[in-house]
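Quick one: Fructosyl-amino acid oxidase from Arthrobacter sp. FV1-1, structure tokens please.
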Amino acid sequence: MSSTKHVAVIGGGILGVSTAVHLLRQGASVTLLSEQGLASEATGRSLSWLNSAGERSTPYHQLRVAGVDRYRTLFATDPSREWLQFGGGLMWNAAGQGEVTEARHAYEKSIAYDSKLLAPDEIESVTPGIDARAVPENAIFNPGESWVSLPELGDFLMEDFHALGGNLVLNAGKVSVTVDGGRAAGVETAAGDTYAADAVLVACGAATPAVVKALGVDIPNGSPVSMLVVTKPVEHNVTAVMNTPRAAVRPNPGNTFALDHDWYEERITEHADGSFTIPDEVVQELADESSKLIAGNPELKPASWKIGYKPIPGDGEPVFGELGQVPGCFVAFTHSGATLGLIAGELLSGEILTGEKHPMLATFRPGRFS
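--- reply ---
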């Protein structure tokens, strides 16, 4: 009789892949099922700015700081990786909101979050490649922040997944949780294929509430539609992620940029088949706004863009842990999937295998909605 615990993980994004790999590293047997390919949903279109800037609940801040720490540990093993870099984060508000920026800086300092308040003419000496003319009054630079390209991180983790004998099921369609005697017993694919399991993790982004609703569990879903644009290569020396009133910009592998924001959400059209479209001129406008932030204002040309739902629980806080109504079924649903990707996989895998609840996840339990 084998004592190996078998876990089925629904979702090929960063939370599913990370948890699957952490489970395998601890000796579990894992089947990972993805509706389409890996990183085909939110993970493939995330700005993936790794941070805990601004104001949020203390437990959420502590978890995010731990999340960034795990990336710092990974970065230290090979600082030359093009897809994970610690170049800091730079943000500013619109003209006339300098006092708002100052208040944010004061709050960050009060919780010992590394924060520097800069005048426009000080930016160049702190972080390269920024056009200071785009900054109306002041800016905050957070040196400890970073960015990751999640598809490349996923590929890196999947090397371990395959080496450790994980079972990958791609193009599984909508996967549901099967229940036996009130307990999660496995999963079933859209084609009717079944996989028995001792525990199940539902980590399929904005679709997570719909999957657990079939089990009689309600998790409020506040996921908006969003877009990520990747530009064609352009010469630049930007190292920081920029969060500004009209564009959020981060460096991306291959001398490209990743761009997003929310001002154009109402210009996105969702079609009956679940696809999305946006006028080309809106995509170019985002690229033009981004160009204004970069020294020399290089012409940014969109190479590709992806649109879909950005996972955000209804109350904005992460949802992690076992469903009280369905023992053996766990969920991972959060807006900060990139920042929490490594730490969430680590802590959830421990809970799944040992049954011991980690105190850092105490306030994020799905039972708070019951």
